[in-house]
Amino acid sequence: MNPYIQVILEDLKMLGVTYDRFSHSSDHFDTLMKYCKELIEKGIAYCDNTEPEEMKAQREQRQESVNRNNSVEKNLKMWDDMIAGNENGTKCCVRLKIDMQANNGCMRDPTIYRCKPEEHVRTGNKYK
């Protein structure tokens, strides 16, 4: 068994957490991608290519990303780049439009989807 999975299962056992069904998040990647695109189409989420350090500083200073108010069309183009895993796409993430003025920093447009160019342990290179 994959060592990451083994550690999670051991942690659950230690905490006394039981489950009815064992699954992997990667079993649901297609569904997650479908809903992420839907959020972008509805203008609830946006693609952002801000550098991570700058994004962190913007959150701390409660500043909106320059990408926050991009058109749906531009966001969908960036999303397509993310799905393709190309150079532009791997620099992007998808963020929810919540509240950049929230007292809770975690609610300041959190990242909900990102690209990882490395091969996934279960899905290989199918997804980025």
From TrEMBL:
<dbReference type="InterPro" id="IPR050132">
    <property type="entry name" value="Gln/Glu-tRNA_Ligase"/>
</dbReference>
<keyword id="KW-0067">ATP-binding</keyword>
<feature type="domain" description="Glutamyl/glutaminyl-tRNA synthetase class Ib catalytic">
    <location>
        <begin position="4"/>
        <end position="127"/>
    </location>
</feature>
<keyword id="KW-0436">Ligase</keyword>
<comment type="similarity">
    <text>Belongs to the class-I aminoacyl-tRNA synthetase family.</text>
</comment>
<dbReference type="GO" id="GO:0017102">
    <property type="term" value="C:methionyl glutamyl tRNA synthetase complex"/>
</dbReference>
<protein>
    <recommendedName>
        <fullName>Glutamyl/glutaminyl-tRNA synthetase class Ib catalytic domain-containing protein</fullName>
    </recommendedName>
</protein>
<dbReference type="GO" id="GO:0006424">
    <property type="term" value="P:glutamyl-tRNA aminoacylation"/>
</dbReference>
<dbReference type="InterPro" id="IPR020058">
    <property type="entry name" value="Glu/Gln-tRNA-synth_Ib_cat-dom"/>
</dbReference>
<keyword id="KW-0547">Nucleotide-binding</keyword>
<keyword id="KW-0030">Aminoacyl-tRNA synthetase</keyword>
<dbReference type="InterPro" id="IPR014729">
    <property type="entry name" value="Rossmann-like_a/b/a_fold"/>
</dbReference>
<dbReference type="Pfam" id="PF00749">
    <property type="entry name" value="tRNA-synt_1c"/>
</dbReference>
<keyword id="KW-0648">Protein biosynthesis</keyword>
<dbReference type="GO" id="GO:0005524">
    <property type="term" value="F:ATP binding"/>
</dbReference>
<dbReference type="GO" id="GO:0005829">
    <property type="term" value="C:cytosol"/>
</dbReference>
<dbReference type="GO" id="GO:0004818">
    <property type="term" value="F:glutamate-tRNA ligase activity"/>
</dbReference>
